[in-house]
Specification:
Number of helices: 11
Number of strands: 12
CATH superfamily of the largest domain: PAS domain
Bound molecules: adenosine-5'-triphosphate, magnesium ion
Shape: rod-shaped
Number of domains: 3
CATH architecture of the largest domain: 2-Layer Sandwich
Strand content: 15-25%
Helix content: 55-70%
Largest sheet: 5 strands, antiparallel
Radius of gyration: 53 Å
Length: 451
């Protein structure tokens, strides 16, 4: 009973059984009384139609033969039994005596008495007959019509039996149909289950065939979409790990080389200092890389906590630009600040500073020395725009489409290609956006933030 197939089959069976039981309970008992009622009604109609012509013979000079022929004529006409009874009053009590009858069996006197007393037509169904007594000629006579009801009883029995037989067949069909339909459903669910197991085992290559538009078809479609996304995620993750480990391996390998060289005791102080500078540079690169990788993986996992506060961007840009003075001097570059006096934005100051550092660092490292960098901060359409502009060679259109991807680099500067990926993720997390426009001699990165 645990399987979907069995449960569904049982449900089909139970519903059909209930429907048949309801039909039987409603139809079988009511049917007999409805048929009897109709039979009695038909008999009343016969009485209304035939009584006048028989009544005219009562108290007239018509011969017994005529009276009999009218009574029998009415019986033949209607197919029922007809009896005419005369009423004599003895001591004030009515006495009935048959005058003419289409049958030899005695007519039902009790109903005739009741009709005489009531002075109107009376009808009833007795054990084997439906009877109607119609008093005529001012209660001087009463005509009794009767018809057997055995056919109704046997008809009802036949109908009952037919319902049961048809019900039995319907039940068998429900069982068989239910089993087949449920089997097909169960098979489709099973296919989904097997596909889910394959995905759980890390296999994404087999989409489920979508063979219908019903709910299971929709589910299969959604499942295939999920599988495709998982496959993309999986390959993105594999790429990420491969590139990250390669990026980490390069400085570590280089460090190993320098350590080996430094072990040489006969090294002159000048060379030793140069090697030590290289070692420091590689260590800096490694530590920046590890911080960046950690940031990016936290951002992608959604676990980086961001503060939300009103920040004075004027002060923030001034302070971050100040940090770059030594680097600017070394690069022979100049940085110009164009910031509105009061400019508040809704953001995390630490992360906005991080984005600015990434952008200014790029403007320095990916341009020739002597670059002019302009940092502007202004309000526009209810948003705050923070832009870093340089007059370097610019970014080619093909590279421009990919610069926000992790590990993408478009030149031979020794970057690891994580800066812009982190910056654009951070901007998105603060309900902002990072965009870029570039032409030779003019490259602008714009950070848009809610005011
Ligand atoms: N201002 C710019 N001018 C020209 N090219 C740029 C500029 N900013 C970024 N790029 C290009 O976009 C690429 C991606 O930049 P991103 O900051 O993500 O990585 P990176 O600077 O190479 O390395 P990282 O910042 O991680 O040390 C760079 O390699 C560079 O080719
Ligand atoms: Mg960079």
């Amino acid at each position: 009973m645990r399987s979907l197939r069995n449960r569904l089959t049982f449900m089909f069976f139970a519903i059909t059984l209930l429907a048949i039981a309801a039909l039987y309970v409603y139809l079988a008992p009511g049917l007999g009384s409805r048929l009897l009622g109709e039979k009695l009604n038909a008999l009343v109609q016969v009485a209304r139609r035939e009584s006048p012509s028989i009544a005219r013979t009562v108290g007239s000079s018509e011969s017994q033969r005529v009276v009999r022929s009218r009574v029998i004529g009415a019986a033949v006409h209607s197919g029922d039994r007809v009896t005419l009874l005369l009423v004599n009053h003895v001591d004030g009590r009515p006495q009935l005596s048959p005058v003419a009858s289409s049958t030899s069996t005695p007519p039902p006197f009790p109903l005739a008495y009741r009709a005489i007393r009531a002075g109107k037509l009376e009808a009833r169904t007795a054990e084997i007959f439906a009877e109607v007594a119609d008093p005529v000629s001012h209660r001087r006579a009463v005509i009794v019509y009767s018809t057997p009801i055995s056919d109704v009883v046997s008809n009802v029995a036949v109908v009952r039996r037919e319902i049961l037989v048809a019900g039995g067949i319907a039940l068998l069909l429900a069982l068989l149909g239910g089993y087949l339909v449920a089997g097909r459903l169960a098979q489709r669910v099973k296919r989904l289950e097997q596909a889910a197991e394959r995905v759980a085992a890390g296999e994404f290559a087999h989409p489920i065939p979508v063979d219908s538009r019903d709910e299971l078809g929709q589910l299969a479609k959604a499942f295939n979409d999920m599988q495709r996304q998982l496959a993309q995620l999986q390959s993105a993750r594999e790429n990420f790990i491969a590139t990250a480990s390669h990026e980490l391996r390069t400085p570590i390998f280089s460090l190993g080389g320098f350590v080996e060289l430094l072990e040489d005791e006969d090294l002159d102080p000048e060379t030793r200092r140069r090697f030590l500078d290289q070692v420091r540079e590689q260590v800096d690169r490694l530590s920046k890389l590890s911080v960046d990788l950690l940031d990016l993986s936290k951002l992608e996992a959604g676990s980086l906590e961001l503060r939300e506060e009103q920040v004075d961007l004027g002060e923030l840009t001034r302070s971050v630009s100040g940090e770059f003075e030594p680097a600017l001097a070394q690069h022979d570059s100049h940085l110009e600040l164009r910031v509105a006096r009061t400019l508040d934005a809704h953001c995390d100051p630490v992360r906005v500073a991080q984005i600015m550092r990434i952008l200014i660092d790029n403007a320095l490292t990916h341009t020739a020395s002597g670059t002019r960098i302009v940092v502007t901060a202004r309000r526009s359409n209810g948003r705050v725009m923070l832009a870093v502009r340089d007059n370097g060679e610019g970014i080619q259109a093909a590279a421009a489409r990919r610069i926000f991807e992790p590990f993408f680099t478009a030149d031979d500067a020794q970057g690891s290609g994580l800066g812009l990926a982190i910056a654009s993720e951070l901007a998105g997390r603060m309900a902002g956006r990072l965009s870029m426009a570039s032409e030779p001699g003019n490259t602008v990165f714009t950070l848009e933030l809610p005011a």
